[in-house]
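Changelog-linked ticket: magnesium ion example.
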Amino acid sequence: MNKIETKQVVLLAHHLKALRLPTMGAEAEKVAARAAADNADHLAFLLQLTELELLERERKAAERRLKAARFPVMKSLETFDFAARPSVNKVMVSELARCQFIDRKENVLFVGNPGTGKSHLAIALAAAACAKGYRVRFSRVTELVTHLIEARDERTLLGLKSRLAKLDLLVLDEFGYVPASKVGAELLFDVISTAYERTSVMVTTNLPFESWTEVLGSERLTGATLDRLTHRCQIIETKGESYRLRDAKARITRGRGGPAKKGSSSAPEPGLEGGEKTR
Ligand code: ADP
Ligand code: MG
């Protein structure tokens, strides 16, 4: 490389940095060398370089969205055994993975006993939404309520609420394991009511609707919460016995020399274990 070329490369790196095009900066020399070898024209060179910048940006944005969603573990629809959970309609779930319900601001409720795959499905669908560019936040109900109460005490509630309002999909996992305090229930209702027709809410719960008062305390608040959540909402019931239990039983049978079961997962993830009780 002669002196003039070296100066050009340094200047180009500077300009691309100033323009916030780091991938173009990093790849320019390599792509230029390849273009020269392939006899590609200037426009083809520029096209390749801009494509690399865009791809890298999209990759980073997807990574950021996934991190911001704060999933406790990763789950996908590919690893969900629909045959083991016949009450869950695979076509309906696949349709949800297309995320049109988010555009329509509709809600999704997963109702069923512990270990029946509610969190698995919620995480898988929310991750699919992340991949499509939607802003998602996954939170256990107790965690969110604690955050809301802390934010209220620290006078940062407005900030937290405006961050929640920017979401496309809010996942509220494990509604019903712990009763909320009066203040907690009111703050939770406030979030659900603000989200109404603006942000899709996905809830997983082991509680039938008639028992929601046990968590929210008052009939009035429960009625108002259910009214907002269930208006324009799809309900998926995960009926049957716990997948974990089934898995454990199969392992014991295998240990005794019984037939091996195909397609069962290994030990359950700690992230999804907490706070469950059978009702
Ligand atoms: P829930 O939220 O209903 O209590 P989870 O979604 O946490 O249940 O499921 C418990 C464990 O069993 C998780 O590790 C999950 O991935 C697994 N699991 C549950 N149902 C299925 C299924 N149908 N196919 C594959 N794995 C499943
Ligand atoms: Mg769960």
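Closing comment: Example verified and attached. The pocket of adenosine-5'-diphosphate (ligand 1) is lined by residues 75, 79-81, 84-85, 112, 114-120, 204, 238, 243-244, 265, 268-269, 272 (CB under 6 Å). Confidence is low (pLDDT under 50) at residues 260-279.
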